[in-house]
Amino acid sequence: MTVTAPRARKPGTRTRLVAPILVRQLRNGVEESVHRGDVVEVDATGRVLRALGDTDRPVTLRSTVKPFGLVALVQAGGVAAFDLEPAELAVMAGSHSGEDLHVRTLQALFRRSGVSQSLLACGVEGAPLDALTTARLARDGERPGPIRHMCSGYHAAFLLHARLSGWDPDDYWLDGHPTQVALRNVLATALGTRPDRLRTAIDGCGIATFVAPLREVARLYALLADPEAIPSDDPRSELATALVAIRDAMLAHPEMVGGLHDRVDTSMMKAVPGRIVSKGGAEGLRAVAILPGPREGVHETGASGIVIKIEDGAAASRDTAAASVEALRQAGALDAPALRALARYHRPPTRDPHGRLTAEAVSEFELAPIAELTS
């Protein structure tokens, strides 16, 4: 299932495994480039269902952490205190495209809560993600503000939590701020560890991100898929009520998780309504929560989480999408109509100026069903 790289390593360091090829870029049958990566699917207990590559590879969660970053606000009573709508929860759990829809939603939220959007500390790098909105702003001579940044909803959750709890909102993004302490406590509970044992890094928007093995990230999303199935004596059960509200909001408003135009997470969730929650992260990471229910061509009916990590950080942008759709197909989460709806992501085409197909990104891998291999 994996190949160990024959290389020297420092004492105490982890052996790096050579990642298998997940996607090939083909031009008239000629392989122009390949994208390697690792894939793992687990159930809520952490049992590996399917895998390819290194399931223990450590990754930074990046934006896949966002649904869990919202938990502390919901647990603190934020939904009732600020009369939060599902669409507002979804935009705070997502990485939005900075379209007017997202801006209006956040502005209404800030007005109602009495929080100033001028406190947003996410910056403006890469904002907005939506190309049409970017072109319109440039045409009108308007400079995008932080509210159009993809992480502004995530940051808004911390500002609301500070407002609700009476904490100073300034520097909410620093590690020692109570909102960030609350975030670490939630992640530690979800990962089954202590806050002081969490390994962290700084994300692109300035807030801490967390490091975990790939299979543990998948387990987080299995938890998101079916929070109510957690046994009452499991410490993670304290997160269940908040996670249900966040999951259901994302299911109901996939356009708030991503955007209206060509966002993979949004498109995948719309292709199978009410069945998956998809959340991408930077550097070629995507995590998907598959809700309980019948699947196509497989025996599993329980909840699971599946994570895809592209070795090259998805530098070409096509590779994570192609591998994600293929992984979900093999997990039985996508039926034939869904695959047709996602065809442009499953085999992303490249066309010349005349519209002719010149190349395709083709997913060619097979997830090993671990139960069959070990039986």
Number of beta strands: 14
Count of helical segments?
16
Return the domain count.
1
Rounded to the nearest angstrom, the distance between the terminal CA atoms is 16 Å
Question: In terms of per-residue confidence, which ranges show pLDDT below 50 for 5 or more consecutive residues?
Answer: 1-9
**Molecular shape:** globular
Determine the mean pLDDT. 93
Name the helicity range.
Answer: 25-40%
Provide the succession of SSEs. Answer: EEEEEEHHHHHHHHEEHHHHEEEHHHEEEH
Largest sheet, in brief, is:
9 strands, antiparallel
Strand content: 15-25%
Q: What is the CA-atom radius of gyration, in angstroms?
A: 20 Å
Class inferred from helices and paired strands = alpha+beta
How would you sum up this structure, described in words?
The structure is a single chain. The protein is α+β, with helices and mostly antiparallel strands. It has one domain. Helix content is 37%, strand content 20%. The protein has 16 helices and 14 strands. Strands 3, 4, 5, 9, 10, 11, 12, 13 and 14 form a 9-stranded antiparallel β-sheet that branches. A hairpin with a 5-residue loop joins strand 7 and strand 8 (208-213). Helix 4 (86-93) packs across helix 7 (152-165) and helix 4 (86-93) packs across helix 10. The longest helix has 14 residues, at 100-113. It is globular, with a radius of gyration of 20 Å. It starts with a strand and ends with a helix. Residues 1-9 have low confidence and may be disordered.
